[in-house]
Amino acid sequence: MTAKRNTPVALIREAAPFAIRAERASDVVAREALLDACFGEDRHTRTCQRLRDGRAPAQGLSLAAVRQDGRLVGTVRLWHVSAGGRSALMLGPLAVDDGCRGLSVGAALMRRALAVAKTRGHGAVILLGDAPYYARFGFTAAKTGELSLPGAFARERLLGLELVDGALDGAWGMIVPTGALLSTKSRTARTRKAPFAVPHAA
């Protein structure tokens, strides 16, 4: 008698009522609504946004979490930066639908993003976020103390993770964007719907 080979897949799907996949063009409106709800409509004035304005995210590092019905419930992107002369990625924003709190959507997005970044040969990831939350993924302030952002920020929230040992050794100075410039396009339409969870990374 032939054993059923699809059982493990079914169990995985039941255990995780969401999936992590590459962001799609069709996700844009829902993603903008999610970010507006998490960060407020003034999010475009925040310090980290200056590293993203007019730039494309790092290739393969725009991820979405979606429920089984196709609804977007989480998002994360990573961006090319120079961290005091060291090539790195800046992670953010990370946002999760408040209705999915307790499902570890944020953790799943983080782990996938870091795994993809490492596979693609990136040496380090930097973010501005809550140290107690990001410590579980290996982020610390050990090598970011001499780095700065183009605007006001809380020093203790500037964290780094080396994917390659020594990638942030001697990092000093301003973090600046180095990603590909975007072509001029019409502004993305945004919607405002249900409440979302308070995000961890700006």
Automatic annotation (TrEMBL):
<dbReference type="InterPro" id="IPR000182">
    <property type="entry name" value="GNAT_dom"/>
</dbReference>
<dbReference type="Pfam" id="PF00583">
    <property type="entry name" value="Acetyltransf_1"/>
</dbReference>
<protein>
    <recommendedName>
        <fullName>N-acetyltransferase domain-containing protein</fullName>
    </recommendedName>
</protein>
<feature type="domain" description="N-acetyltransferase">
    <location>
        <begin position="18"/>
        <end position="160"/>
    </location>
</feature>
<dbReference type="InterPro" id="IPR016181">
    <property type="entry name" value="Acyl_CoA_acyltransferase"/>
</dbReference>
<dbReference type="GO" id="GO:0016747">
    <property type="term" value="F:acyltransferase activity, transferring groups other than amino-acyl groups"/>
</dbReference>
